[in-house]
Amino acid sequence: MNSIINRKKLAAAIAGMICIVGLLVAGYALFIRGTPASPDFIAIRYISIADGALAVRGTTTSSAAGYSGYTYRIEDHQLFIQIKYTRTVSLFHPTGDFNISIRDQLASIRQVYVQGKDTADTKLIWEK
After folding, report:
1. At residue 21, does pLDDT exceed 80?
2. Domains contained in the chain, number
3. From CA 69, how far away is CA 18, in angstroms rounded?
4. What are the φ/ψ torsions at residue 70 (nearest 5 degrees)?
5. Is the pTM higher than 0.85?
6. Is residue 119 a part of any domain in this protein?
7. 6 backbone dihedrals φ, ψ, rounded to 5°
8. In what order do the strands lie in the sheet with 42-50?
9. Does residue 3 lie within any of the structural domains?
10. Most C-beta atoms within 10 A of its C-beta, which of 48, 73, 93, 128?
11. Cβ distance 95 to 64 under 8 Å?
């Protein structure tokens, strides 16, 4: 009888630990790491390309979202920037404002786009 109770306790403990790990991973993804924002929610205030550097400043139109970073890729003389936001502002990401600086081989760039989660979700923000 004790071995059955111990097995049930062990199974419950393992299930509880799996739930806690799942919640921690989901919380990290939503509130710390962030996800790419739709270009429709991005407001660009300033953009400049000079001397191999791109500078972009702006914010989100969502008052609750917190800026958490960006990624970019260069393809066929085009630069695509994914701007990431968390669901809500937090101690880690207190505002929606961003100031992005990219130093790369940018001399041949003809267009700069903000890209959402999907590659088809783009918005032109600069053109040579």
Report:
1. yes
2. 1
3. 29
4. -155, 160
5. no
6. yes
7. -65, -40
8. 42-50, 53-60, 98-103
9. no
10. 93
11. no
What residue type is assigned to position 58 of the chain? G
Closest CA to 30 of 92, 82, 105: 92
Q: Read off the CATH number of the domain in which 60 is found.
A: 2.60.40
Please state, in angstroms and rounded to a whole number, the distance separating the CA atoms of residues 48 and 55.
Answer: 5
The answer on pLDDT for 126 being more than 80 is yes
Rg (CA), the chain: 21
Name which residue leads in pLDDT, 37 or 30: 37
Here the tokens at position 50 are 């000079």
Q: Give the whole-angstrom CA distance, residue 86 versus residue 37.
A: 9
Q: Cα dihedral angle (77, 105, 69, 43), rounded to 10 degrees?
A: -50
Enclosing domain of residue 71: 35-127
Residue 19 lies in a domain: no
Name the E strands within the chain: 35-36, 42-50, 53-60, 66-75, 78-86, 98-103, 111-115, 122-127
Any domain includes 14: no
Q: Is the dihedral of CA 43, 59, 126, 33 positive or negative?
A: negative
Instruction: Give CA–CA dist 125/128, Å, rounded.
Output: 11
